[in-house]
Write a structure and sequence with these properties.
Largest sheet: 8 strands, mixed
Distance between the termini: 46 Å
Low-confidence stretches: 1-19, 168-177, 181-186
Strand content: 15-25%
CATH class: Alpha Beta
Structural class: alpha/beta
CATH architecture: 4-Layer Sandwich
Mean pLDDT: 89
CATH topology: Purple Acid Phosphatase, chain A, domain 2
């Protein structure tokens, strides 16, 4: 099984100049090219504890604001090429409760130990409501004022409540355990509930989306949402799914798709791939395992929805520190590109300013301003996407930093060589069947 996982994870390395290639990056740009920004987990940058007011060496939220300013500066409205921003969630760090009334009604309640350390560490009502959520709104306001359409998928940290439940096997036997459970008692898993906080920032009726012609609809007020944007001669549909979306979200999404048949569709959701490119949840927080009535696993979403819906060609996710790409054919024989990128555990920006290099939950994680740029080049006979990884803090692409692998590889992909790690951050996806699925570009859909 481990050999199979490794083969999947390195699909773009094994085929080299095939479907997803690390050797064919094209730095030249045509007029029809456009960029979609994939914005991974920003939770540590926004964390109220990682600011100078709390004794941290820097205001890490400045790194988040720098990211948003960088994106806005490249907006189509500002003469750039960024046509859409897809956030994969964990926008902020803390929750404000350890109980969710809706789950309590269904009997999914906490274990008696309400001081469970993995829960206690992330409950901070004042910091969440008064610092982190307002900072998130401030950052996305920069994107909004640049007239960039965007969608935000809520991550587990964006829910209102966390609580602990009994689980098996013991934590010591769980591979890839969520870092928040490192010092937890055995036989425990975490669950989440409630999206009131998230809807207060990114709900359908907020100023970000109300009356915007590119915002189509939101499920139950915007916990999941749908957007549309035009670029490169196509209209695209984007669906932002809540974590481990349940059947009700899927039915809503099917209705949105039925109203927009034939549009190339991207799904952003918080947890879909792990760093080995498997569609497996972390055992420490497996929402579908705990609550199958309300949640679907990534594999079930693939089998029962994504693989059956031919216009979905891409799935973006975060949650699991690291990066991966997986390419599968759907039921119609067309390729679906599944991409993981999560840089939340990067900390060089803090180490550079004097924070000690401690390990575990106290490590000075900031994210270092890294994000994914996906440059769509759809106008030629062979449509492609060039993927690059950029830090607005270091003002560099991953390939431009000699220390990149030294800084990050051992934490995120210890089994990779330096060359493999660098190739995982800068590669080209060949969209072999894009034109046959969605037609040739149209002059009517060059940009919004």
């Amino acid at each position: 099984m481990k050999t199979l996982n490794r083969d999947i994870r390195f699909i773009f390395l094994a085929v080299l100049c095939g479907v997803a290639s690390a050797c064919s990056f094209n730095s030249g740009r045509r007029n029809d090219d456009f960029t979609v920004i994939m914005l991974p987990d920003t939770q540590n940058a926004i964390d109220f504890r990682r600011q100078t007011a709390e004794g941290f060496a820097i205001d890490s939220s400045d790194i988040f604001i720098e990211q948003m300013q960088y994106i806005a500066g490249r907006a189509v409205a500002n003469g750039g090429d960024v046509a859409f921003v897809a956030s994969v969630g964990d926008v902020w760090q803390h929750v404000n409760s350890q109980t969710d009334p809706e789950h309590v009604k269904r009997g999914i309640t906490a274990i008696p130990n309400h001081d469970h350390p993995a829960v206690k560490r992330f409950i901070a009502a004042d910091g969440t409501l008064n610092i982190e959520i307002p900072k998130a709104i401030e950052g996305y306001q920069i994107i909004s004022e640049a007239s960039i359409p965007f969608g935000v998928a809520p991550g587990n940290h964006d829910y209102d409540a966390w609580w602990a439940l009994d689980a098996t096997p013991p934590n010591s036997q769980i591979e890839g355990l969520d870092p928040s459970l490192e010092d937890a008692p055995i036989d425990v898993t975490l669950h989440v509930g409630g999206l009131s906080n998230f809807r207060s920032a990114f709900g359908s009726d907020t100023d970000f989306f109300h009356d915007r012609d590119w915002y189509l609809s939101g499920f139950e007020g915007g916990g999941s949402s749908a957007q549309i944007f035009s670029a490169g001669g196509y209209r695209f549909l984007h669906l932002a799914f809540e974590m481990h979306a349940g059947d009700d979200v899927v039915e809503w999404a099917k209705g949105v798709i039925d109203q927009h048949l034939g549009l190339p569709t991207i799904i952003s959701t918080h947890d879909f791939l792990n760093p080995r490119a498997e569609r497996l949840a972390a055992s420490g927080m497996d929402l579908a395992l705990v609550d199958p009535e309300g949640n679907n696993s990534a594999e079930k979403l693939w089998q029962d929805f994504i693989s059956e819906t031919d216009q979905i060609f891409m799935v973006l996710s975060g949650h699991r520190p690291g990066q991966a790409i997986r390419i599968d054919r759907n039921d119609q024989g067309h390729e679906v590109y599944q991409i993981l990128a999560d840089y939340q555990s990067r900390q060089q920006s803090a180490l550079d300013t004097g924070e000690p290099p401690v390990k575990g939950p106290a490590a000075p994680f900031t994210g270092d301003g890294w994000l994914r740029e996906m440059v769509f080049r759809l106008g030629g006979d062979d449509p492609i996407i060039d993927v690059r990884t950029y830090s607005s803090h270091f003002e560099s692409y991953s390939s431009e930093l000699d220390t990149y692998a030294e800084w990050y590889k051992d934490l995120e992909q210890p089994d990779m060589t330096d060359e493999e790690f660098l190739a995982a951050e800068e590669f080209t996806i060949e969209l072999s069947d894009f034109h046959s699925r969605f037609g040739m570009p149209s002059d009517a859909h060059r940009h919004n």
